[in-house]
Amino acid sequence: MMNFLKKALGFEQPDYYELFENGALIIDVRTAAEFAQGHAEGSMNIPLNEIRDHISTIQETGRSVITCCRSGGRAGMANGILKTSGISAYNAGSWENMQSILDKNK
Q1: Which residue has the higher pLDDT, 6 or 36?
Q2: 24 CB contacts (<8 Å, ≥6 apart)?
Q3: What is the band of 1 on the pLDDT scale with cuts at 50, 70, 90?
Q4: Closest Cα partner for 24 from 77, 101, 53?
Q5: pTM above 0.85, yes or no
Q6: Tens digit of pLDDT for each residue in 18-51?
Q7: Residue 94 near residue 68, CB atoms below 8 Å
Q8: Residue 35: how many CA atoms within 13 Å on its side-chain side?
Q9: What are phi and psi of 37, to 5 degrees?
Q10: What is the pLDDT of residue 13?
């Protein structure tokens, strides 16, 4: 019953590695300086304040998106912007969390 409620209310976490393996883009929405200090393997940097400028390019890929940042807040905002634009998007929280997921599945 609890799993049904989690899924129905949207609280169930997706399998981020499966999404990545199926072609999802990992977009880190931190600043370029933050990204340069470390980022999830294979991620691209599109700062939150620039995400709207890249909507059409992201849409053209036809791929899902996994967002990440330092703690998940900015990734959540980017996630909302992407979803509003019709892009299938998922917030993985911090880039360290996303890197940990990638490392566990190597």
Answers
A1: 36
A2: 63, 64, 65, 66, 90
A3: very low
A4: 101
A5: yes
A6: 999 999 999 999 999 999 999 999 999 999 999 9
A7: yes
A8: 16
A9: -80, -10
A10: 81
* Cα distance between residue 92 and residue 65, in whole Å: 10
Summarised one tens digit per residue, pLDDT across range 52-93 is 999 999 999 999 999 999 999 999 999 999 999 999 999 999
Q: Residue 12 and residue 85: Cα distance in Å, rounded? A: 22
Token pair recorded at residue 74: 């900015």
Task: Report residue 100 CA to chain centroid gap.
Answer: 14
HEC readout, the chain: CHHHHHHHHCCCCCCHHHHHHCCCEEEECCCHHHHHCCCCCCCEECCHHHHHHHHHHHHHHCCCEEEEECCCHHHHHHHHHHHHCCCCEEEEEEHHHHHHHHHHCC
